[in-house]
Amino acid sequence: PTILAIESSCDETSAAVIRGGKVLSNIIATQAVHEKYGGVVPELASRAHQQNIIPVVTEALNKANVTKNELSAVAFTRGPGLLGALLVGSSFAKSFALGLNIPLIDVNHMQAHILAHFIDDPKPNFPFLCLTVSGGHTQIVLVKSHLDMEVIGQTTDDAVGEAFDKTAKMLGLPYPGGPMLDKAAAQGNPKAFEFPVGNMPGYDYSFSGIKTSVLYFLRDKTKDNPNFVQENINDICASVQHTLIKTLLKKVVQATKDLGIKEVAIAGGVSANSGLRAALQDYAKRYSWNVYIPAFQYCTDNAGMIAMAAHFQYLAGDFADQYASPDPRMKI
Length: 332
Ligand code: ATP
Ligand code: MG
Ligand code: FE
Fold this sequence. Notes:
Elements: E1 2-7, E2 12-19, E3 22-30, H1 42-64, E4 73-79, H2 83-100, E5 104-108, H3 109-115, E6 128-133, E7 138-145, E8 148-154, H4 160-170, H5 177-185, H6 208-224, H7 228-259, E9 263-267, H8 274-287, E10 290-292, H9 303-316
Parallel strand pairs: 1-4, 4-5, 6-9, 9-10
Antiparallel strand pairs: 1-2, 2-3, 6-7, 7-8
Helix pairs in contact: 1-2, 3-9, 4-5, 4-6, 4-7, 5-7, 7-8
Bound molecules: adenosine-5'-triphosphate, magnesium ion and fe (iii) ion.
Fe (iii) ion binds at residues 109, 113, 134, 268-269, 301.
Cofactor: Fe(2+)
Protein name: tRNA N6-adenosine threonylcarbamoyltransferase
GO cellular component, one term: cytoplasm
């Protein structure tokens, strides 16, 4: 099948074309309008999606060298995400499918982050564990097949991406904070400072505490030295990042032991973090895991992953109808 896929759950407008399971194009328009607000403004995101969607789809079809009459189906992100943002992508996909008289496929954004692993080689073997870490989610998912997944642990408060972004903001780093913090951390000493982490039962996480502890730490340190942040920015970033990564991987280690699984993947925007990628390789050696790390372009939001999910759904005959509405809190 040849499928056009659309992603519009947050602040990336993206379209991709997949044919026979091979991604032919993956066009991503990142919305710059949110920078000056230091975070995503939902109403502005919706409007930017409206402006971007036609050029992005046109470019995706052109780059793939596919005409709309060759399409077998149109896929869209149904959720989770911002309602107004999802509405733009879903309305567009529905009209496009209706106009071409071809089926519609509704995709779960979090499943798609995981299925990004099936775009390129090497592909994980089932069952595998996927640590899905992004701006809105932190989950350990037991992946039994392409379309059968179970969340076995998750954050009870903030997502780890939020912890990255909020720490970066407190340190005065520009938005989006995660990648900036990553860069500074690479120059710093991860053992310079210690931050406490919440310890939740089972495979669950808590990341709201570290935000508060960083806040108090900075308040106390800047009392003695107003230049403390500027002088220690790299070490602070490295230490916070180290703490977050250690917290994430501790539960993954526990889950691999309990379930006897050695196939471990990471997915979602925070899987672009160089510290996490390096730590996963170390753990792979220590615990003899096979680890799977997506290419950068498939870590943060993109329609390539939506297309990959849609491909499997198409083969399984899992279609949506014109009544399918966005689901901002859609679960795996
Ligand atoms: P969700 O997928 O949960 O709906 P989202 O779509 O907003 O949320 P993604 O685009 O998957 O999230 O990921 C964005 C998050 O990834 C942001 O929090 C961002 O700071 C973080 N991120 C991106 N690159 C890095 C990096 N190199 N280091 C740390 N965090 C990063
Ligand atoms: Mg984003
Ligand atoms: Fe995402």
